[in-house]
């Protein structure tokens, strides 16, 4: 028998189940259980139906201790006793997990009584393998898992595919930092094979941690289908996709401008370019630069006009280091200041070479001097202008960020930002520097390396996106693809209307090596460029090369492209590559296209858009028909959660709690830059979860208190999938933890009321025996209706709000209190226990998708309904449908009970006014409306119980009020009277009322003296003023009544 102990206070953290190791006889893998059970190989099944040891607090016992009170105050965690208790709890849960799996072997959604025959498929947005998950991931999987669990309980055949992304640039950057930190080794000091071996070791260490986090969060993923974007299946899919796109003319190799990180020595995607606004002069120190560099400065440079000694054109630039690459100066053709110089030539201020003065309508004549330098090799806008005018680009910056040979010996080989200072100094010495001033600008920065992004001309592989983009845009217009919220449609259409070709080459070692081969010594037909061929293997590429050159394949020399593909390329294939594509698998036939894609709104274009493009092109179908986009969790600087930035918080720290020392230790073991590490270490921890670098140490001197999985999930889902950026606080999660404890205690009460030997009736046979029973069943049916609507529309905030209101308000605050008199009768009537059971059973099943641990633990304790085999777990029990409970709905009764609740509030206010703490005074209600008299007649007993009163009766209309009774109005037609004679000492109460009145009057005077403001603040002030005036009026009325009682009281001689 399980020893009595405190109730799980973390509502899930006390119920975090750790399954046995893979392949163990107690696991699905070890016994060959069906794919459905492999979906359940995670800690969301807490108990077996046949293993139900007594749960503390859920059976009547006078000797049991009271549960430990949950407090929102921070407290120390990690004591030896706490750790031992937690380890013992996890051991028990592992045993229960194994027992449950052994008991439901062979179960599947298709075999469930409520099976619908429909499928629901979804894939997890594969998290980067570079490290642990953060709260942004927790939000994603909390929403997804709730939807998956609802569909599973509905009876749909569910597939939720887990996976992780190899994250080429991010992983390589993190591993390079780690190698330098631990071994003092740079990547280029290792061979490619040695470096890849180190990356795989990193992946093996971090990939397992991600799985453990997902299990701790209760994710019911199909672990048997777990995939990684660098595994064999994904590699085959990537190669096949590249070859097909190439053969269809949608892939080509070209020398174009790309966004380049000199620190990484690789092209980067647009999503890795962060725009940093600068208000003016700002000192920054890019990686590899020996000293800080000034950005946000506009430098004016004079270009002398050839042949006119005193004439010049002044050009403004924020990038003087690119001056050696200038090939022209451009002005607007209608700018009168330069009309006389059209067709003239200018002298380059550094080299003296002649440059043409060209005219172009793209020049903004009202910005700066109206003249701009043209550097096609280092500016996308200049590249377009140069192409229009036939200008040849001149590259002056190398891959590593140093100056190239065309700059001359005085600049060649030095860092580009060191060269910037030398160039400005040279201009000053030559007398061609015309000014230097602060200039607001936006600086492109690489999010992975922190380096300033350069634009370099490189020969890369590109995907033609226009045709595929048009189809993706049309899919939304036609309704074939739904974006939710629909507000994202505008950005979707704009992005695809202006989409350019996609550079997919990356100069990395970690990733899918491009399946393209250079035919050495063989020029391409027509243009004399390099000859490239593509193939699924070198043998296939050799055949293509032989056909292209007309030479025997054995005589040709092939060199495979050393670059790898952009990570987004393999990620774009994930919805179908994870199901076995390009093979025709049963999973692909059954579950593709996916039913839904749920992800963060920041991934809409870079991931979702590319999945739609490639999925439609390669499979002939949209990869999914609906995209659900949730709000983002960001840090205090507005940055997205990123492992390489170090601004993350492990969800397990919120679930289990963590000490301050451990939080700070995690910083030192990460890959933060020294400056960012110093800020974070000095600031941790915080009141707001997603803001580790800007935390306040004083808020949680002992770290983060234990909150629990269910509390965290409920808090995340309560923000909804379609709101603004989310700022989650620890007190909010602790509030959800207290809500879990409320449910726990409600089940204690219900099971005690049911007693031993209770046999539930079928729900369709349940007939309420009293109006209050009918009311709670109507509220339960409404809760089921609203939860169903919330899940159908994927508005999880509606689900959580409905559940919170039903459990906390309708059930705990009202019905459990109202039903106590009926339960106290001997013998106890049969109706209330049956109603209590239905509320618990249906309420827990409604709760299960968002709070799986608590729902499972408590649902297993309920008696089983007779007839038919019981569901082995709440997660495969039927989800209550609105239609099945429709016969319980009584909206008119609910409306009428609202009047009863108004009377209850008035009675409680009267009790508070007269300080009736323990007394149960008699109460009379009087209404001038006969219909209201009948309504209150039906609810007299619940009214007395909820109002903490004694006997409650009705006073006929027109009857005089009892003498000496306190009275108050409920409405224009209803008054209540409360007997206080003999229960209140007027002489003792009057001074107390006077003191309370003085306190309220002081608050009222202070609020009234405030200067009126505007908007919502003034509205709140006026509401508070009205509230205080009403309270003062009640106190005055009570004081007057007490004085009247004193006057009417008989003197001692009259008694």
From TrEMBL:
The organism's place on the tree of life at top rank: Eukaryota
Keywords: Aminoacyl-tRNA synthetase, ATP-binding, Ligase, Mitochondrion, Nucleotide-binding, Protein biosynthesis, Transit peptide
Gene3D superfamilies membership: HUPs, Isoleucyl-tRNA Synthetase, Domain 1, Valyl/Leucyl/Isoleucyl-tRNA synthetase, editing domain
Residue span(s) of domain Aminoacyl-tRNA synthetase class Ia: 116-728
InterPro entries reported in the protein's UniProt record: aa-tRNA-synth_I_CS, aa-tRNA-synth_Ia, Anticodon_Ia_Val, M/V/L/I-tRNA-synth_anticd-bd, Rossmann-like_a/b/a_fold, tRNAsynth_Ia_anticodon-bd, Val/Leu/Ile-tRNA-synth_edit, Valyl-tRNA_ligase
Region (Disordered): 62-94, 1004-1024
Enzyme class, spelled out: ligase
GO MF, one annotated term: valine-tRNA ligase activity
GO biological process terms on file: valyl-tRNA aminoacylation
Domain Methionyl/Valyl/Leucyl/Isoleucyl-tRNA synthetase anticodon-binding: 773-921
Subcellular location: Mitochondrion
Catalytic activities: tRNA(Val) + L-valine + ATP = L-valyl-tRNA(Val) + AMP + diphosphate
EC number: 6.1.1.9
GO cellular component annotations of the record: cytosol; mitochondrion
Pfam families noted in UniProt: Anticodon_1, tRNA-synt_1
Sequence similarity: Belongs to the class-I aminoacyl-tRNA synthetase family.
Described purpose of this protein according to its UniProt entry: Catalyzes the attachment of valine to tRNA(Val) in a two-step reaction: valine is first activated by ATP to form Val-AMP and then transferred to the acceptor end of tRNA(Val).
Name of the protein described by the UniProt record: Valine--tRNA ligase, mitochondrial
